[in-house]
Design a protein that fits this description.
Rossmann fold, five-stranded parallel beta sheet, 6 helices, secreted, hydrolase, signal, Cutinase
């Protein structure tokens, strides 16, 4: 079944060859919210608005200045996925983490960036800078929160390259990537014990082949959502 998502991919085929499985879900693409370029001063949060626990494809807990929580996840979606946390991997991972530690303990912010095949070839375009800005804003608003960086597919590139945009390993508690084209490379100097990479068998995007062909394996990371959430819980001692 072909969908609007498939048409978006097809329009980019001339730039990067992408092969999709026959079955592909119908997705709607909500308009991305613009982010503020200037972080406000830290809030006391004596009264605050909790982040909704059913954000779907879009999560804005940092830019909306929701209540401070134990954990803040900054997530970068994959190429041409909808919203700012995508469809295939972000929402299942976020839902699993909320289930395991409680939604009131987790803030989630999706990285705003085009996530096109063009930015795929350039290490995520403006994505790394925007992820770094999200980290800085999260820590400004909630200095005691533990920051987790995560990304799927091109979003993995965003995580790696965010460390070139003014954030340091000391600010990050853990990182989790799924189908990461940079799989196997150091993640901003983070200790290996706080980094988890998922690369499914048959996923040529993350297995070192250098291919950007989308296989069914590359769309399978919802299967790892609970394990990834458990890794975060254990690593952060929650």
């Amino acid at each position: 079944m072909r969908s609007s998502h498939l048409l978006a991919l097809a329009g980019c085929a001339a730039a990067v060859p992408l092969t999709l499985p026959n079955a592909f879900p119908v997705l709607s693409f909500p308009i991305l919210r613009t982010r503020s370029s200037k972080a406000s001063a830290p809030a006391a949060h004596t009264t605050c608005t909790p982040q909704p626990s059913t954000g779907g494809n879009t999560e804005n807990g940092v830019v909306n200045k929701n209540c401070c929580t134990d954990v803040t996840v900054i997530f970068a979606r994959g190429t041409v996925e909808p919203g700012n946390v995508g469809y295939f991997t972000g929402p299942p991972f976020i839902a699993a983490l909320r289930k395991q530690i409680g939604a009131s303990r987790v803030t989630v912010q999706g990285v705003e960036y085009p996530a096109t095949t063009t930015t795929l070839a350039t290490g995520g375009g403006v994505g790394p800078a925007n992820m770094a800005a999200d980290v800085k804003q999260a820590l400004l608003q909630c200095p005691n929160t533990k920051i987790v960086l995560s990304g799927y597919s091109q979003g993995g590139e965003v995580v790696h390259n965010a460390f070139k945009q003014g954030i340091t390993a000391s600010q990050i508690a853990a990182a989790v990537m799924f189908g990461d084209p940079y799989n196997g490379q150091s993640v901003g100097g983070l200790a290996p014990a706080v980094v988890k990479e998922y690369c499914a068998a048959g996923d040529v995007i993350c297995n070192g082949s250098g291919s950007f062909v989308i296989t069914e394996a590359h769309l399978s990371y919802a299967n790892d959502a609970s394990d990834a959430a458990a890794f975060i819980v254990k690593t952060l001692g929650l």
